[in-house]
Write a sequence for this structure.
């Protein structure tokens, strides 16, 4: 298989997909499930999910030999094997619709204009390796030799993370592409919500961030991690899902939305001393949860980080994040277990 991907287009998608399975002896249904879920939850950098779907359709309709994209593979394949595998991946992607909202997509570098038109809205107190690890992404090498990562947030904003080297440290600048009528502080709030970074990890360079805002963004980083871990556990046949340390730490940092009671306290379900407090990653989901209940009074809400919420609830209780979803997960004060 070639060491370098083809130019942008369906050939690059097919090459990338076959590259990830080149050592697999059999292109079986488990492998199809793994790759289809991967394309839905972690699409290749520079591609949206519909672009990946359409690329596979174009490849399958092409009369071009797809084996030419993978000369001398470690495991010999036939043209029929490759096409059948791609067809089953495409069909499984279709069956997984509606696809869950992603917090952001990694963009192609050549889709950006000169960064000189962008405003720096924050500095992350982390280097590019730490940021990349947190976001499950790899920084690009720019034409001037620097490192950067362009993102499109689910709020519609586009930001570039750019490595900054100083004499005694390295950090990452957050640059926002201009967008008419969009305040920089709202872009920053959306960025924090969908990436899981918190105000304590940044220098705020806007006119003043509202730490309780999500800047109009949709699904956030914690919901994404929980979906991802649930998908991985499903593929591995693990039940219940075991929460990783990194996801637990993301829970502690994330601002969650809960229903309050008339007297000081929170709504909980389950037996005293072993119950769960429902908490939601989006206020709209909490409103729907409250509306589904039998109480016709106006519900009262509040927000708190996962860490503060664990401190607020009685001993023995846990926090159930996004109940009613396929990825609903309980968190206890003692950490992941």
């Amino acid at each position: 298989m070639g060491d370098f991907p083809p130019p942008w287009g369906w050939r690059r998608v097919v090459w990338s997909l076959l590259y990830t399975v080149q050592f697999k002896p059999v292109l079986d249904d488990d492998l199809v499930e793994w790759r289809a879920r991967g394309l839905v939850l972690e699409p290749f950098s520079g591609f949206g999910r519909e672009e990946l779907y359409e690329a596979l359709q174009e490849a399958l309709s092409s009369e071009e030999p797809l084996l030419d994209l993978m000369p001398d593979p470690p495991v010999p394949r036939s043209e029929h094997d490759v096409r059948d595998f791609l067809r089953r991946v495409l069909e499984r992607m279709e069956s997984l619709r509606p696809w869950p909202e992603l917090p952001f997509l990694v963009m192609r570098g050549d889709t950006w204009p000169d960064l000189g038109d962008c405003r720096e809205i924050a500095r992350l107190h982390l280097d590019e390796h730490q940021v990349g690890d947190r976001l499950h992404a790899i920084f690009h090498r720019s034409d001037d030799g620097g490192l950067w990562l362009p993102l499109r947030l689910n709020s519609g904003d586009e930001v570039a993370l750019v490595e900054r080297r100083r004499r005694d440290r390295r950090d990452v600048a957050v640059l926002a592409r201009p967008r008419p009528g969009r305040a920089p502080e709202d872009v920053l709030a959306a960025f924090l919500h969908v990436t899981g970074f918190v105000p304590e990890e940044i220098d705020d360079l806007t006119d003043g961030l509202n730490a309780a805002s999500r800047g109009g963004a949709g699904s956030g980083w914690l919901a994404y991690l929980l979906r991802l871990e649930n998908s991985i556990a499903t593929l591995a046949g693990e039940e219940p899902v075991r929460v990783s340390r990194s996801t637990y730490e993301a829970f502690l940092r994330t601002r969650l939305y809960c229903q309050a009671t008339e007297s000081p306290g929170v709504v909980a379900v389950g037996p005293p001393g072993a119950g769960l407090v429902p908490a939601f990653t989006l206020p709209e989901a909490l409103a729907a949860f409250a509306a589904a209940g039998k109480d016709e009074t106006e519900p009262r809400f509040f927000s708190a980080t996962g860490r503060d919420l664990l401190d607020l609830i009685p001993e023995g209780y846990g926090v159930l994040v996004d109940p009613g979803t396929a990825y609903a997960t309980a968190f206890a004060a003692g950490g992941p277990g």
